[in-house]
Amino acid sequence: MADPVSSIRNLGPAMEAACTRAGIRSAEELRALGADEAYGRLLEIGTRPHFIGYYVIEMGLQGRPWNDCKGSEKEALRRRFDAIVARSRATGMGEVERVLDQIGTGMRR
C-alpha cells in the first residue's frame, strides 16, 4: 500500500484531500511530480494561489520544517511560485471555473 500524502512532513489532512482532488493519491506520486507540477495541478482544480501552500510542499518534499527556508532560497521559491501561478492563469480557467461556467453560474459570460 502506498504512503498517504500526509506522511510527508508538514502536510496534513487538508493538503492530502486537495492532492486527492488533483489526482495525486500518494506520497510517492507527489515526490515524483515535485512541488512545481503538484502545485500547478492544485491550481487547476481551483485551489487559490497561496505562497505558503506551495512553500510547505517544497519544504516537506525536502524533509525540512515548513519555515526553514530564508533569504535568497526563499526568494527563489517565490519566483518559482509566481511563475506557476502565471502559467496557471495563462491556460485559462481552472477546473472549478470550467464546471461553474458549464452549468451557468461561472463569472465568464
Secondary-structure map with pairings?
Elements: H1 13-21, H2 27-44, H3 51-61, H4 71-90, H5 95-102
Helix pairs in contact: 2-3, 2-4
Overview of the structural elements:
- With 109 residues, this protein is mostly helical.
- The protein is built from five helices and no strands.
- Helix 2 packs antiparallel against helix 3 (51-61) and helix 2 packs across helix 4.
Number of strands: 0
End-to-end gap: 45 Å
Q: Measured on Cα atoms, how large is the radius of gyration?
A: 15 Å
The biggest beta sheet is recorded as: none
Shape: globular
What keyword list fits this structure?
109 residues; mainly alpha; 0% strand
Question: Quick gist of this model?
Answer:
The chain has five helices and no strands.
